[in-house]
Protein: Putative cytoplasmic protein
Amino acid sequence: MTKRVLLLGESWVSSATHYKGFDQFGSVTFHLGAEPLVNALKGSEFELTYLPAHEVVEKMPFDLESLKAYDAIILSDIGANSLLLPPAVWLHSKPMPNRLKLLRQWTEEGGGLMMIGGYFSFQGIDGKARWRNTPVEDVLPVTCLPYDDRLEVPEGFSAKITGDKNHAILRGIEGTWPLLLGANEVVLKEGAHVLATLPDDEGGHPLLVTGSYGKGRSIAWTSDIGPHWVPGEFIAWPGYDQLWKNCLSWLTHLDNA
Structure:
């Protein structure tokens, strides 16, 4: 059975100034960060729709029925403002539906929501992701900190598996996980199910957490899906593809668990 998945975020634009003696010029580069996940899901039972961050602002659905076309929605490295401030609101002061509240209702009625970590996930760099105290945070199995929540681990860490290895999300993933280079720090909610954490010597912070909200399910993965927190060795690891397929199977009840 094919399940439809909507991925929101994972793109950015960078601007650089190049100085060459007396002269200088500027350049602008567009970056996509979701290729590893897109490739992981190719040929699977998951039909992926990918809205890069700049398209989310206007193209993410503004009504519940349109959201219900998707079985799972992934928020990855995109701040709350991109959903709260479409041009109609930001530029023209026109009232518009609150898409954070729509995501909460969509999950409550049976959707599967996942937030993946990054500089603009959870509370994010300088606290600018702003997911704390939002309707989306209500759905997640974790709460966000009120300040910059990044855990930078340049030497790398290997996930500590704390959940049952027969859990649908961990099934088929064997051996030691390759190194990750960072994550967002979050606080567990009561009743959340922790499947993996950072090592004890890195604070034992949550890495992979599941929860439920109404009829729906939610997952928090506090590291990223690609560089820089996720090195190439992690992406090339067979468990990488399996992890995302397992997460989406669980979110969409394909696992029947």
User: Anything to note?
Assistant: The mean pLDDT is 97. The first helix runs from residue 35 to 41.
